[in-house]
Amino acid sequence: MNQNPDIEKKRKPVYGWILHLHPRKVRESTLRFSLTFGLGGMAAVLVVLQVITGLLLKFHYEPSPENAYNSILNLQDSLLFGRMLRNIHHWSALFLLWTAFLHMLRVLFTGAYRKPRQANWIFGLALILLVVLSNFTGYLLPWDQLSYWAVTISTSLLAYIPLAGNFIREALLGGKDVGQATLTNFYNLHTGIIPVLMVAIMGYHFWRVRRAGGVITAEKDRESPMVDTQPHLVNREFVVAIVLLAIIFLISSLFDAPLRERANPSFSPNPAKAPWYFMGLQELLIHFHPMFAIVVFPVTVMTAACWLPYIKLSDANQGIWFLSANGIKSAKFSLIAGALFTVLFIGLSELLPDPELLLPSVPSIVTKGLVPFLILIVTLYFFLGFIRKKFSLNRAEFIQSVVIIMIASYAVLTLTGIFFRGEGMNLVWPWQV
Amino acid sequence: MKKTDSKTGETQKSGRRDFLKTVWKILGAVAAAELVFFIFNVLRPSRELNKSKAGSTIKIIGNIDDFPLDSVTPDRIDKLYIVRDSKGGFLALSLTCPHLGCSVLWNQAKNQFDCPCHSSAFDRFGVVLNSPAPRPLDYYPVILEEGKVKIDINQKEKRKKFEDKQMSYAI
Are A189 and A324 contained in the same domain? Predict the structure, then answer.
């Protein structure tokens, strides 16, 4: 740094600002790519990209049911690089969802949600929620058959929340059906409230990472030497950002963002599907009473996620993925078991007769809700007890296995919903969808 | 709460200070409550504006004779089906599936309404044949006057089961 003070001076305005966001020195061991895979940084880059492309799209988009669809067509057909602009916004939204999710998994598996980072884990969860909401509110804006019915289905799910369900649904929709008021609400959330909240929480999220002493490291790397942020960290971040942008630009020039026919409120496409990241929920809904699919499962998962950093552990994995060889075995076993169990469950529920038709006198919240839920809980209980003994897991490894089972299960549900549900949401092969 | 100032020993003064602090807290709570109320008020769907004056929402769907016996006729603009049974009774069914709000389609071959989203099925009176739909299709009371079929499109009724009184007969 001190070798050439002239260059250092010239660079100062830009680097000064970049360095302002970073600590002056970072530990060398935190620079290893496979520690973080640069996922948090990628998510930040993608948010910036979304803000820029989103602001440009706002010049051409008109949020009214009459003109929204046409304004998208105009944007695509008559504006130079208009289609490219929309494609970049579409694909980087998808990338953002994935990087945010994978970043969460990385934090989870390297134990970076433990003290002193526990509050930042919660803020991270809030950010993921905002990313999903941002995706979802943006989904409606093109006002085509895909977006109209996806939003109709997803918001109808809200009506099953006890007591407040209808109020929440109608407040979000601004009325009883998806219409002008809904578009106004979603547009305002998508281009105003959510981005502002997201950027504000992001700033705090970054600051807390820094306050916790930077990225988490394994115990053996705690004593590794400190190196200058510029160039060691900044250059790495730059490379990751450039490669990411190149990939997104490449994909956006090859694949167009989907746009179906203009929304028709009296004809649902068959099958009508929710946005793909909600397909797991929609699949769950085929098998469970809405009360369980929409309320019990999601609330349980979200509560568990917030509670996670506060569970007392004797030995937590810090900066490493697994504590022991048994932990790795258990993780693999859980992954396969979780996926297989879900496949089996979907298969059985297809082959066995519908319990609701078998026992029409019993309310469906019992036959399709309570009974399968209890069966699920009991099965899980015995299965978890079994792997805990088999692999002699400690608590941290045990939690890791539970998380893996849940992720495998939701992945199978999502894949089934996207690729194996055809007309009338019947099970079909992917080439028949 | 009594606190004594370490220098002067005046209990009176800090009593007033505590009182003012409490007042500030109460005012803060009131302001927060007002803000919450205001936000809820902004979010509340403006039903009063949407609701047209009574009577003006009655629509003429068609002539009674336009609907043959034993028929199901879609009216896509008003999002409903006009069902006429073999005895000449009329029933107007909403085409919105009570499960998740998709539009149901009449399947003449199977003599039932199918929902494309989660394969709920309903018979011609809107009664659930196949779950997951939690209740029959909503219906609108049909008004038969001067040879016309009329419907109040603001009067969508939920129901638990099909009853004959939901049908309208021309006298």
Answer: no
Whose CA is closest to A88, among A243, A195, A248?
A: A248
Alpha helices in B44-155 (DSSP H): 47-50
CB A354 within 8 A of CB B131: yes
Asked whether residue A7 is domain-assigned, the answer is: no
What's the token pair of residue A22?
A: 């970073």
Neighbours of B103 (CB within 10 A): 25
Are A244 and A300 contained in the same domain?
A: no
Cβ-contact B91, B142 below 8 angstroms:
yes
Helical (H) or strand (E) element with A374:
helix A371-390
ipTM here:
0.72
* Residues A307-350: tens digit of each pLDDT: 988 888 877 777 778 878 888 888 899 999 999 999 998 888 88
The encoded tokens of residue A91 equal: 């694909």
- B152 at interface of A, judged by CB pairs closer than 8 A: no
Q: Cα torsion at A230, A232, A238, A240 (round to 10°)?
A: -160
Q: Which of A186, A266, A286, A416 to mutate to test the interface with B (most CBs of B within 10 A)?
A: A266
Residue A65's domain is classified under what CATH number?
Answer: 1.20.810.10
A78 with A169, same domain? yes
Q: Give the length of chain A.
A: 433
Report the predicted TM-score, pTM, of the whole model to 2 decimal places. 0.84
**Which of B45, B46, B117 is facing A153, going by the closest CB pair?**
B117
Residues A54 and A177 in one domain: yes
